[in-house]
Amino acid sequence: MTKIAPKVRVEAVISTASMSDIIFNLLLFFMVTSIFKMEEGLPISLPKARSGTDTQRQEIVHIWADRGNRLSINDKLIQLNSIQGIIASRLEENRGIIVALNVDTRTKYKLVSDIMDQLKEANAVNVSFTSLYEEEK
Fold this sequence. Notes:
CATH class of one domain: Alpha Beta
CATH topology of one domain: Nucleotidyltransferase, domain 5
């Protein structure tokens, strides 16, 4: 008679010793490759200012105007005559919104005046001009 050797069970074990290294590397990878989208508008050069205040992003509608008379509202190119309708509908949703004009320093004042007329027709009373902070010398 032959003896049959008992079967030895080998258990599969996953080592968790390097698990924290793997998680740290994944976290680092996602932090480095993430893109945080800021407000996108037309490429403009903002004027300088000596003082200002910060406001919540949800309460602001950005109107961008570049030196080529192109206009955009919150990343969408628009025509001058559509500003009134867009701002009026946003004001119906929230009366407390602020319209921020981001105007290039080389933009003709006629365009700024026309934008202001459109805002007046939409009854937008909270209007601000965006500028870069300039430190006093």
